[in-house]
Amino acid sequence: MTRTAADPSAGRGVPRQRPARPGAGRSPLTAALLVLTALLAGSVTAGLAIGSVQVPPGQVWGILTHALGADWADPGWSRAWETIVLDVRAPRVLLGAVTGAGLAVVGTALQALVRNPLAEPYLLGVSSGASLGAVAVIVFGVTWLGPLSLSAAAFAGALGALLLVYATARTGGRITSARLILSGVAVASVLTAVMNLLLLTTDRGNEARAVLAWTLGGLGGVGWSALWLPGSALLLGIAVLVAQARNLNLLLAGEEAATTMGLDVARFRARLFVLLSLITGTLVAAAGPIGFVGLMTPHIVRLFVGGDHRRVLPTAALGGAVFLVWADIAARTVAAPVEIPVGVLTALCGGPFFLWLMRRDTRRGTDRGVA
């Protein structure tokens, strides 16, 4: 069979989408959302119950409902359990759910924007910028903003990396996805080198372990005050991306087809790249760089709900939340009393998945070339 020039998605690794019939896929979507919502509720319960001190699930819900104002005549739990559930585990579990959901929706959008199934949220060097900002705070002992100093520096580093990537990728008033990716890789390499230089030249010997723990990603030690910023970023990201789901679907057919349908591809990409980078920077500032969540989750949910972003985005958010909550549970319990950085566990899951995805994409490209 001879491939015609009208097939703009040839060899790009992203399957073309057929026009959806009215109501098509609605039942699978509803079922997927219900199942994932139930899984998320169960995952949050497990995250609050499991740990060095085991709290029965029934008592977990009793503590939660009592904290929300339910009138319990005789609470059957101790004050210690209430403190563990509400002040220690609840912020951590919620941050895991928010971070997992945010990384999943960012990864979903990026895979459509660059039309590459291997794209993930740290593609544009934002993670390296956030890491450099956090390392600078740890090494120099900056405490201007108190407990928020590290998160603020990580966010500022992510924003600075984004501006640098855009400055280097912009030529002739346009930004192509290829130049943006190459600029992101180059900027990430430079920022990582600067971060390593800071560690090597510091006179303080205890920073290396703290920096290593942060750069591997983790959800421990967070409080309720750390949740409002990533939570706001997640809500903003989901609202904007769901509103732009049709345009993301158009990009799957190729730039020429999307332009024919009235989409200004360059402007649309530039705006979403900025939004996605800021969301990623906010999440990294709160939880550190946790990789592969935004790579795996979109592909897994597409197996069940198809490729329409109106279905993929909400299911990916729930799936990412469930995955990261359970990854954090494993991080706390597998090697207890030692806690494994959650980024290590996501990498152990995501690395083999990435290799499988590359192999599958290469096989598809070979098959298309033979056809």
Count of distinct strands: 0
Structural category: mainly alpha
- The number of distinct structural domains comes to 1
SS element count, helices = 14
What number is the mean pLDDT? 83
Kindly report how far apart the N and C termini lie.
Answer: 6 Å
Oligomeric state, counting identical vs distinct chains: single chain
Poorly predicted runs are 1-24
CATH structural class: Mainly Alpha
State the CATH superfamily name.
ABC transporter involved in vitamin B12 uptake, BtuC
Word description of this protein:
By secondary structure, this protein is mostly helical. The protein has helices at residues 26-49, 57-67, 79-113, 126-140, 149-169, 177-201, 207-215, 228-243, 245-252, 255-260, 265-287, 293-305, 309-333, 342-370. The protein is 70% helix and 0% strand. Helix 1 packs antiparallel against helix 3 (79-113), helix 3 packs parallel to helix 8 and helix 5 (149-169) runs antiparallel to helix 11. The longest helix has 35 residues, at 79-113. It is globular. The N and C termini lie close together (6 Å). The model is unreliable at 1-24 (pLDDT under 50).
Task: Annotate the secondary structure layout.
Blueprint: H1 26-49, H2 57-67, H3 79-113, H4 126-140, H5 149-169, H6 177-201, H7 207-215, H8 228-243, H9 245-252, H10 255-260, H11 265-287, H12 293-305, H13 309-333, H14 342-370
Helix pairs in contact: 1-3, 1-13, 2-3, 3-8, 3-11, 3-12, 3-13, 4-5, 4-6, 4-7, 4-11, 5-6, 5-11, 8-11, 12-13
